[in-house]
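#struct-help
A.M.: can someone run this one for me? Single chain, 236 residues.
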Amino acid sequence: AAQIEDGPFAAIDVNMGCPVPKIVNNGEGSALMKDIKLAEKILTSMVKAVKKPVTVKFRKGFNDQCLNAVEFAKMAESSGAAWVAVHGRTREQYYSGTADWEVIRQVKEAVKIPVIGNGDIFHAQDAARMMQETGCDGVMVARGAKGNPWIFREIRQYLETGEIPPRPSTEEIREMILRHGRMLSEYKGENVAMREMRSHMAWYTKGMKHSASLRCEINQVETLEGLAALLDGCMV
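D.P.: on it. Structure tokens below:
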């Protein structure tokens, strides 16, 4: 944490909710919910090591036999965490079923630091309903932003005015895909970026006309130029 503290970000977030097997099997991510003493040691040490806020995300629990989100939140607060984010599913659930927003409410009532709710936020109305039902201070959008970065402006406007802005036009979606491809290429290189854009393309164009052919043809694209040409041919 100290090594990266000078980076261009406002806080250092520790993900103690990751369910991926290679992370959990190494005792990391959501596995730390089974070892609250170790989690406490990690958070306390990080808070002491840096000046920027340290935050932590975790889940409802590890499984149905380990539902300890409230206890975990209290530990995080006493360790100096600036805020906590709670995903209303256990690690065993991964992303299946429905997120339990009740546990978010319980955490909010148990601590004084801000609580961010996470789980099943796919529309602006979901965000408003979560905040109303749980009293949480904010919402965290995850899968709901895949292929839909506009969800953030929609949530903000809905919370402020009760209205939702119009959905993006086909041209706006096309420009966003190209922007995404360019940024990804700058970060990871064109070859890797174009492979990763295959899944992003499916999310961006879900339900659109010609989306099936787009998902098929994107597999042949290897360059930004090829991506632009594909979009010009299918998204006009």
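A.M.: thanks! The two ends are 46 Å apart (CA to CA).
D.P.: also worth noting: The beta strands are 12-16, 54-61, 84-90, 115-118, 138-140.
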